[in-house]
Every structure is written in C-alpha cells, then in structure tokens.
Specification:
about 15% strand, 15 strands
C-alpha cells in the first residue's frame, strides 16, 4: 500500500505545474501531512535524479531532462510493475524470449512468472495484440502498427515523461541520428508548405525515429495494414516520398511502399487541418451529414453559430485525420487535457458530444485520446466568440468629460480579465434619476449609499482595480451559493443522497445509482448505457476527488441529481474518488445543465470542499455544510 501511495503522490505532482500543499496531498492520499513529509523524503532518497522541491507553498517536481536508454535492457528491475515492462521491451525488440531466460534473469518462481504473463496477456489486448506461448517460448502477434503504438506507450510509462522533448528522444535512442531526422523533417515540411502544431511535432519525430529503428531491425510494416483512399493525392504523400528517400540514404535502409504510405499517414495525421487540399481522404457521406447535424444542435444548445470562417470544413478535416490516427493506433497524449477539463468542463463536454454522435457512424477504438485535441480545435474557434467564464454586469458612473469614460471602460475590462461587462454608463451627477440596476456599480463619484458599489478614481491605480476584482469575486461567490441552493433544492431529493455504501469500483456505483433512478421511473433503460458511453469518450472524474457522470437527453423522464458519498475511496481505473454526483436532465434544460455542471466542477474540485461533504452523513447535514464551502 505504501509503494502504491508513493507512486500516486509522484503522479499527482507530475500532473501539476504549480506548487501543491501538503494538506492537499494528504487529502488526496487519505493520510496525514506528517506522512506526506516522510513520503517526499523517501522519494528524494530513492530517486535523486528527479527531486521533489519543498517550500512554504508545498511541493513540486524540479523538472530535469530524464534520460532513458530505451533499448538498453541491462538494468534488471525488481518491482513487479517494472518487470512486466522489461519483459515487453524484450518481446517488442527481439520478437521472442525463452521461459528459462526470464526465470534466470529475474530469479523468480514459475508461479510469479505465470502471474506476470497473465497480466501481460490482458494488457497487450488493449493494443489488439496477442501474447502467445509455443512450447517454452513467448512471442507477440498482431499488426505492426499496433506494436509501434505499444512501444510508444511503454516509452511514456517507463520513463514517466509528461512533456516530450527532442532531448528525451535523443537520450531514448542514443544510437540513432535523431538530429538528422528532426532537421530533415523541418526542411521537408517547409518545402511542401505543411505545418504541424506544437503539441504534435515531437510526437511525430518520435514515431519516425521508431519507424526507422524497427526497419533497421528488419521489422517492416505489412502492405495489408496501410491502405488509405485518397492519401496518395495529398501533399503529405509527396513529402513522405521525398523524406523516405533522404532517410533511406542516410540510414542505409530500404523504404517499402507500405512504409512510405505509413510515413505519409503519420504526416497526414499530424499536419494542421488548414493544410488540407480537396481530393484527399474524406469522411463517408453519412458521417459528414451526422457531423453537420451535431454541430447545428450543439451550436443551438450553447447559443453559438459554428458556421463562420469555414469551421465546419476544418472540423470535418480534423475528423478525417482523427479516423486515420485511430486506424493506425496513433495515440498522442495531451498534456493539458486535465487542466482544460477542470477550467472549462463545458468545452470538453461539447467535444465529447461531437465524438459520441459520430461514433454511431464511425466506431472509434480509443475515442478518449482525441477528446482533448478536438476541444482545443473548438476552443480556437470559440475563443473570440464565446464567454467561457460568466461575467458580472456593471454600471459605470462617470460624468462626461472628454473621452475619460471610454478610456475607463477599456482599462477596467483589461485589468479585470474581461470578468465584468459594462451594461450602462451614467454620464451625469443626477444619480437618483438614473436608478442604475446591475450586479455592480463602479463610480468615480464619492457615493456611499448604494449596495455593491466600488468608488474609484477617474484615473485609476492598481488599488482601484484590486477593489473592483475583490467585489466581482464577492458577487460571484454569492451568486454561486444562490445557484447551488436553487439547483440542489430543485433536483436533489432526500432519497437521492446516500452515504458510505462501500462500493469498491466506480462502475458498480454508477450501476447502483442508475438502478435506483430506474426504480423511481426517473430514467429509462437506455440511460445507464449512455452514461458509460460518455465516460468512455472523456472521463468526468476531476482531481481524483469527484466524478460528475451525466446525461442530458431523451433517456431522462424526471430531472434528477443523485449524490453518493464514499469516505473510503472508490477505484475508477487509475483514479480514486470519494464523491459521485450524477446529473440526469432532459434536453429542454440543456442550459441549466451547462450551468450546473460548471458550478459543481468549480466547487468540488477544491479538496477542502470535498472534505466537508465527506462528513455529511445524510441529506440534511449535506445542506448544512453548504455555507462552509469555499465558493471563490
């Protein structure tokens, strides 16, 4: 258990870019602050190459370049987790291994090895591969594309790298001329007017390095694995042909037609959507129609027109590239998806809805890996057109004098992060006649008899902006508490609040909740499947604390909330959660759903708020703890 906690602590710190307090870590691991201190000391003693820094603000990783000679298998692991990846490493690079070699290498019993092999058999199935034993020899079978996907996954898992860099690839493949591949790729991309976003570029280099390395080991792609309609008509294919000739000459290897097409597919799956030219791969007609209908529906739900600036075409091209990545098992991890999900849950929900609708036409093997990238594409369109954060409405009292009031409006919006919307201006001193009505009044006149009023200078200083921001935060906090009470009293029935059922798995807990709602005729029989379909695309688990599974659709008969509190953490794959809040809403209340989902996410991703709820053993105690929550 201790070793598991050490690994979970490391993962939590690696996922955070900022300092993490000891109390937050203690809450996450369900232990004491003192134990956290001892864990950190032990980790720093065992792994001095990646020390954990300490300060008054808490802990964080001192990120350094992490070297991993990936093909070097001389360091014999002792931990079961590392031993399994060691076995995979041999199988992936050497193709097969005899049972006596494994027993000799690890000095373990036959039973222990059988357990490792049983685990690996199930593990490689996730990549559509199979682990066989013929007589006393183990070997892998399956598509070369899936084998390459497995190798990339193992590189990330064994190195625990979160952000892929060129230095890391150089250290992982010390005998490969990675610099040549990187520099030549840059020249080829420029020559063919192609561009790759900053997230995909290092991943693309890694996969080309891996392709080259495997070819040098005689592990070639089979022609039956790479056949993509229209790919040969793209600039990416022309680029791959030129690139492969240069690589083949430099590394003294022969690129088969299948490997050239695979390289072209890597390029096509990585290049920006606006590089696309007509005549290349395209979505099936029914998928394109489904996508157009889905975009129209989601646009209506959030009151946003998605038809401008050829966005539907860009989105269609994204899905074409996504389907190709899925076909080749190209899984590109997204280092910002967790922070994106917590900051803007609506954005990830829109992304998941689009993917879920498309999956009815084009089944996806791993839809979850694409949700974050789709969300970034959508955010690029929404950013100048949509207010991701609610704004406080304000009236500005600033008697007219030249252009001072206009200058003041711009300065206020700039210094408050656009969190305030100036809905009116009073340009005289006759305030009583104007009767300003808004969330906030910002006045350059020295008035003291109005609520929610901040008095500032006509030429404000930093202190004036601080006062405005503080009042905005106070108003938002008050609104959140009011909205939370409104939604909870409206949708949470006393029988829908349950405490300490002792569920051991997340899926069991969801099944139980759905069965209870079904008995009360609040949902139909298809609701549960819809919940799990949504979870498959993008998890609704936040910070290893809370899950907010939901469905907003025709499967709901009675709008409902269901809260399940588990003091003992519930296992949900790699997560451990204590609180589940399930939302079931009808289509007509999509706006309420978006507000509620964002509100619950904002409040209960705070570990201290979850701790308050963990002490609420019934419905009444839950409502009594609401005023104690930190709603800022």
């Amino acid at each position: 258990m201790k070793r598991e906690n050490l690994e979970r602590l490391c993962s939590y710190l690696e996922a955070s870019e900022n300092w993490v307090s000891a109390s937050e870590l203690a809450s996450y691991l369900h232990t004491t602050v003192r134990t956290i201190h001892s864990y950190v000391q032990q980790i720093n003693a065992e792994h001095p190459q990646i020390p954990i820094a300490s300060s008054r603000q808490g802990y964080r990783y001192q990120h350094r370049t992490f070297t991993l000679p990936y093909q070097d298998s001389r360091s014999i692991p002792t931990l079961p987790y590392d031993r399994k990846f060691y076995i995979l490493r041999i199988l992936m690079w050497e193709g097969r291994i005899h049972i006596d070699q494994l027993l000799d290498i690890f000095s373990i019993s036959d039973r222990t090895l059988d357990n490792d092999i049983r685990y690996l058999r199930n593990f490689v199935k996730r990549f559509q591969l199979h682990l066989h034993r013929r007589r006393d020899t183990f070997y892998l079978s399956g598509r070369t594309a899936d084998l390459r996907a497995l190798i990339v996954y193992c590189i990330f898992q064994t190195s625990r790298v979160r952000i892929l860099t060129l230095d890391f690839i150089v250290n992982a493949f010390p005998e490969m001329d990675v610099a040549f591949i990187h520099d030549t790729l840059s020249e080829i991309m420029e020559h063919f007017s192609l561009s790759v976003n900053g997230y995909f570029y290092s991943d693309l280099v890694l996969r080309i390095v891996l392709q080259t390395e495997l070819m040098l080991h005689g592990r070639y792609m089979d022609e039956s694995e790479v056949s993509f309609d229209g790919l040969s008509d793209t600039p990416e294919y022309a680029a791959a042909s030129s690139f492969s000739a240069l690589l083949g000459q430099h590394f003294s290897c022969v690129y088969t037609e299948a490997e050239i097409e695979y390289l072209a597919a890597l390029l096509f799956g990585s290049t920006e959507a606006d590089c696309y030219l007509p005549g290349g791969p395209a979505l099936p007609d029914d998928a394109a129609l489904t996508l157009a209908e889905a975009l129209k529906k989601i646009g209506a739900d959030i009151h946003l027109d998605f038809t401008e600036d050829q966005f539907p075409l860009l989105l269609e091209v994204f899905f074409v590239k996504m389907l190709l990545r899925q076909q080749l098992s190209i899984i590109i991890s997204n280092p910002v998806i967790a922070s994106l999900r917590e900051a803007h849950p609506l954005l990830l929900d829109v992304s998941a809805q689009l993917l879920q609708m498309l999956m009815g036409i084009c089944p996806l093997v791993r839809p979850g890996v694409e949700a974050g990238w789709l969300a970034l594409l959508i955010s690029d369109y929404m950013y100048p057109r949509f207010a991701f954060e609610s704004r406080v409405s304000a009236v500005l009292i600033c008697p007219s004098f030249g252009h001072i009031s206009q200058h003041l409006i711009g300065a206020i919006q700039q210094n408050t992060g656009n969190s305030v919307s100036i809905s009116g201006i009073i340009t005289s001193t006759d305030i009583d006649q104007e009767s300003p009505s808004s969330d906030l009044i910002i006045s350059t006149l020295p008035i003291r008899n109005m609520l929610n009023t901040v008095v500032i200078s006509p030429l404000p200083k930093s202190e004036d902006y601080r006062l405005i921001r503080r009042e905005i935060q106070r108003i938002k906090t008050k609104k959140r508490l009011s909205q939370l009470n409104l939604y909870l009293t409206g949708y949470l029935m006393p029988q829908n609040y349950e405490y300490d059922h002792g569920f051991s798995s997340y899926s069991d807990a969801i099944h139980y909740i759905c069965q209870q709602l079904l008995k009360r005729h609040a949902i139909d029989i298809a609701f549960e499947a819809e919940v799990f379909a949504r979870e498959q695309i993008d998890t609704t688990i936040f910070k290893n604390l809370i899950a907010i599974p939901h469905v907003c659709g025709s499967q709901v008969k009675i709008n409902s909330l269901y809260i399940l509190v588990n003091p003992t953490p519930i296992a949900a794959e790699e997560h451990q959660i204590n609180l589940i809040i399930l939302i079931a809403m009808q289509d007509a209340l999509i706006h309420d759903f978006h507000l509620l989902y964002g509100l619950l996410t904002h409040i209960f991703t705070n570990p201290q708020n979850v701790q308050h709820v963990l002490h609420a053993e019934n419905y009444d105690e839950f409502f009594q703890c609401l005023p104690k929550l930190d709603l800022e």
